[in-house]
Amino acid sequence: MGISSSACTGTEQPRTRGTTATDGPGGLVRFPAEFAWGVATSAFQVEGATRADGRGRSIWDTFAAQPGTIVDGSNADRACDHYRLVERDLDLMRSLGVRSYRFSVAWPRVLSEGRGAVNAKGLGFYDRLVDGLAARGIKAVATLYHWDLPQALEDAGGWERRDSADWFADYSAVAVRALGDRVDRWVTVNEAKIIAREGYQTGRFAPGKSDRVASGRVIHHLGLAHGRAVQAFRASGARGTIGPCVQLAPCYPADDSAEARRATELADVTENTLYLDPVLRGSYPRGLADADREVAVGIRAASRDGDLDVISAPVDFVGVNYYGPQVVGGSGPVTRYPLSSAGWQQVHPGGLTDVLLRLHRDYGSPEVVVTENGVPDAPGEDLHDASRTIFLRDHLLAVHGAIAKGAKVKGFHAWALMDDFEWAFGYTQRWGLVHVDFETLQRTPKDSARWYQRVAAANAVSSATPSPRR
Ligand code: GCO
Known about the structure:
- With 470 residues, the chain is of the alpha/beta class.
- It contains 16 helices and 15 strands.
- It has a single domain, classed as Glycosidases (TIM Barrel, Alpha-Beta Barrel), CATH 3.20.20.
- The protein is globular.
- D-gluconic acid binds next to loops.
């Protein structure tokens, strides 16, 4: 997700297509053995059952109940009802040959008030989920925080309060203790950038605030929370691995002017290095105050000695969410690439190669997992979603291009397994490989799901254009 197109950076040069590297007959591009072909969801977007079994309220329940926040006036009270239909969804994933499922644990299901007593019934859902994955040979990738802060914690000051890092560490320890024997990868915080920008700057997402200085404090506390969760995981001795999840957007200058180049450099700070550097280098990026003075003030006010040592606790991998680039001119963002029906997403597969190679080149080549990549249906596509198949093919070729140059990419998770509640867009955008009828809750694989199934089975992508109706 990335609604705003406020800016970004980078010296990367734009490319017009994904990589075309091939190593087999008929343009067949093979992936490394054990590559994890996955799909992703998040709790609030799919689970529904928001009042079942002692689940507490989250900031998104509160936000969606306010008039004017969700474009179609909907909410996620039922969503896909994944909470009740989970066995069916597990079977669906197995039938599609999915090898890795990225889901998120809803904090208010596990701790109704965000802290204190554990809600055994809520935790039991994730227990059954990871058992069900193991029984089907599907790897479990569990995100600890995908935006659904318990409302009780928001009422106590939420992410603006430094204590939030302690709350998150305690909750993470509970989740790891209960599920850590069956989870392969833990993802700490999903997209601190979008939380800060949309939740605390534009106010378009929960908790709906508009206070840039506060957003700086939140960025620092989310980093601290991430580091404290990594420490809690290490202390638990659980198997598996842990890492952050960053939404990266390569930034390209719109033209050769000095103004565009400078604006691109500053945009790169707020799009990328502000979230990568603290975690992977133990420092905030140079140029932060020039890129966003108020955010820098908030971060400085929230910082204490030693925090960056916690924030940069060694991680096992970096989760990358990629939706598209930013193109920046001297007087603001511009649109250079085709826009998807999301409205905010410029489609540029080569940008994914660029961000993966940047991690490889500038950040010590960490192990990387693509934790999200996807596109909404084009208008009128319904089950025959040729544009999604082409999008995924081109982005997978882009991943392969980065692997061929040394990037350590271990897996890919298509966003999303199924159509779901798309935050402030409600049910007006369909991002799933699987179609959901929100009246009957029936799931029907789209053409792209069948295509992805063949890709996973072959461990290879054909660079030939898929026929629209296969
Ligand atoms: C994100 C989001 C998803 C969105 C997706 C499409 O992490 O940005 O995880 O929840 O639905 O990005 O906008």
